[in-house]
Amino acid sequence: MTVGLTDEQALIRETARDFVDNEVVPRIRESDRAERFDRELAERLGDMGYLGAPVGEEYGGRGLDYVTYGIIVEEVGRGDSAMRTVVSVQTSLVCGSIERWGTEEQKQRWLPGLCSGEAFGCFGLTEPDTGSDAASVRTRAEKTDGGWRITGQKMWISLGNVAELALIFAQTEPDRGHRGIACFLVSTASDGFSSQEIHGKLGLRASDTASLALDGVEVGDDALLGEVGEGFKVAMSALDSGRYSVAAGCVGICQGSLDASVAYAKERRQFGVPIAGFQLVQEMLAEIVVRTDAARLLVRRAAAVKDAGRPSTVETSVAKLYATESAVEAANLAIQVHGGSGYVDDYPVERYLRDARVTTLYEGTSQIQKLIIGRDATGVNAMVPPSA
Ligand SMILES: Cc1cc2nc3c(=O)[nH]c(=O)nc-3n(C[C@H](O)[C@H](O)[C@H](O)COP(=O)(O)OP(=O)(O)OC[C@H]3O[C@@H](n4cnc5c(N)ncnc54)[C@H](O)[C@@H]3O)c2cc1C
Questions:
Q1: From 274's CA, which of 11, 34, 250, 282 has a CA 20 to 30 Å away?
Q2: Which atom of ligand 1 is nearest to the CA of 124?
Q3: What's the maximum distance between 2 C-alpha atoms anywhere in the chain?
Q4: Residue 63's pLDDT is what?
Q5: Mean pLDDT calculated for residue range 78-86
């Protein structure tokens, strides 16, 4: 479906498609098997201008609109969700937050290196005891003379072992709840900062995932991103963009599942004919087609709202919920179309399913997206139980 793309967007899509087919796809199977983060390939994303695509050109980005950003993310997601995670974290969560909330000095210091891929950033919100209820972060930031001392733990942090910069969300005044949270730009080379690799994941095996420990990490006042008390807003605005990119990446998984399934169904013969000729196989293919188209349209709608500068939280949650659940469904159907061949990594479809699975969990689970959508529909906030 190419409806509504400008010539420039169509060209950017073709370039991204060629890059992914020629440089990303050939490397993913080995990285996935080895659970190895391919930093060289991640840096190539920077060379291509895919890290920080919507960031202003004055800071090293490309100044692209959200529709075009989504097109790039979809193509990367079709090839490799581990690399798509790099694009999402670096662009939406890290660069987007610095561009929106940072001082001019912070933008000049960090954005050019992050957009070019010379440096990587990670987004440290989740903790061992704090997931969906992000307002209850326990990492503590205490005021010192001229700065802050940060102590706590972060869990499941993408790029946490390879990043030079960590956005760390910490509580400055526990009595103030989410109004006490602040976001800090922390160099991962700081004394007291350490990371540990998390292995054994179901999918995203080629993605770096870390637990972080901050043991009295000292930062200056100039490390504050936004004001004290604005950390929760920083996190929510980052997730508005991050969820969009996850949704766009899932359109890529849907499209990849479709492409692989159609090709296989036309080639594989049973009962003397290609299996594409069986109605029950076409039913599975049709389901993937409809989900792919619908997910892409919802992503484009969310992009249109963002590009118009309007609040897009609900449209983003609708797109994220539908695209992520559809990616799981499409990949699962794709394995079914492939029969036993779909169960091994000679074809991409088993990886699509393993990689898709996390997308209904991170950047807000499907349940959290439904609560956001339901709150908008009813005006009633069901996120926090009445007794809490
Ligand atoms: C591979 C990977 C990479 C990640 N990368 C990052 C990262 O870079 N940065 C970062 O900060 N985090 C990251 N995360 C963390 C991710 O965002 C969290 O796992 C996610 O927010 C869910 O939190 P949780 O795991 O603590 O689950 P919980 O919040 O404990 O949820 C468990 C279950 O309870 C449900 N639930 C919770 N609250 C409600 C409610 N109010 N109503 C109904 N149901 C509810 C959930 O939907 C879920 O089904 C990553 C996670 C993974 C697995």
A1: 250
A2: 11
A3: 79
A4: 98
A5: 98
Q: What DSSP string describes 181-218?
A: EEEEEEETTSTTEEEEE----SS-TTS-EEEEEEEEEE
| Ligand 1 center–CA 301 separation, angstroms | 25
Residue whose Cα lies nearest atom 24 of ligand 1: it is: 131
The phi, psi pair for 23, rounded to 5°, reads -115, -25
Among protein residues, the one with the nearest Cα to ligand 1's atom 30 is 131
Residues 6+ apart with CB under 8 A from 156: 126, 198, 209, 211, 362
Q: Are strands 165-171 and 121-124 parallel, antiparallel or unpaired?
A: parallel
pLDDT tens figures, 329-344? 999 999 999 999 999 9
Among residues 184, 207, 267, which one has the least CA distance to residue 86?
207
Please tell me if the CB atom of residue 168 comes closer than 6 angstroms to any atom of ligand 1. Answer: no
Active site residues: 363
Task: Single out the residue of 119, 116, 190, 204 nearest to residue 158, CA to CA.
Answer: 204
C-alpha span between 112 and 157 (Å, rounded): 22
Ligand 1 atom nearest the C-alpha of 366 is: 47
Split at pLDDT 50, 70, 90, the class of 3 is: low
Asked if the model's pLDDT at residue 162 lies above 90, the reply is yes
Q: How far apart are the first and last CA of the chain?
A: 46
Of 356, 282, 311, 360, the closest CA to residue 82 belongs to 356
pLDDT at 388: 60
Distance 316 CA to ligand 1 centre (A): 17
By the 10 Å C-beta count (0-12 exposed, 13-18 middle, 19+ buried), 292 is classed as buried
